[in-house]
Amino acid sequence: MTRKLLSPLLLLILTLGLAANAHAASGGYTEGKPNYIALDPAIVVNLAAGRRMKFMQVKVQAMTKSVEMAETIEANKPAIRHELLMLLTHQDTATMSDVQAREKVRAEALTVVQQLIYELTGVGEAPAGAENAESKKPKKAEEDEDEEEASAPVRIEAIYFTDFIIQ
């Protein structure tokens, strides 16, 4: 009796273990579902506030529905963080304290990150209105252009400011 119970139980444990390994091998990302990639650690910048300086700390996450893009984001985190740092450094306290202005900065961050990923890797789409996007297209993207047209677009869907402090 014990052998009859152990065999299916052992088979179930092995199956679950293999499924977990496959999920971990893909970074835990799921194709077609929102995948959130934390761009840790939090970005900290100085903000001008009249004659005083203030600090802003922002935690940022990127969202994509593509496993390929999630892995591309992971591989290029230092470059992405740099671009976001440069963008946020140019803001002031008044802009970042206003919700509508902050949303514009978030939209600009999305465009900057999309353009960066496209220029570095050829993965994804050049953002609308990107200057000279075709001339900056990497060779890999030009070679694979016909293959990519058949599949769904691979892109960063959104950038989120998930934690936001000014002091």
Describe this structure in words.
Strands 1, 2, 3 and 4 form a four-stranded antiparallel β-sheet that branches. This protein is of the alpha+beta class and 167 residues long. The chain has helices spanning 2-25, 67-75, 77-89, 93-97, 99-121, 139-150; strands at 35-38, 43-49, 52-64, 156-166. The model is unreliable at 18-25, 139-143 and 145-152 (pLDDT under 50). Helix 3 (77-89) runs antiparallel to helix 5 (99-121).
Short description:
Helix content is 51%, strand content 21%.
Query: What sort of overall outline do the alpha carbons produce when their principal axes are compared?
Result: globular
Distance between the termini: 67 Å
* Beta-strand residue fraction: 15-25%
The profile of the biggest β sheet is: 4 strands, antiparallel
User: Structural class from helices and strands?
Assistant: alpha+beta
Write a concise keyword list for the protein shown above.
single chain; alpha+beta; four-stranded antiparallel beta sheet; 6 helices; 4 strands; globular
Secondary-structure map:
Layout: H1 2-25, E1 35-38, E2 43-49, E3 52-64, H2 67-75, H3 77-89, H4 93-97, H5 99-121, H6 139-150, E4 156-166
Antiparallel strand pairs: 1-3, 2-3, 3-4
Helix pairs in contact: 3-5
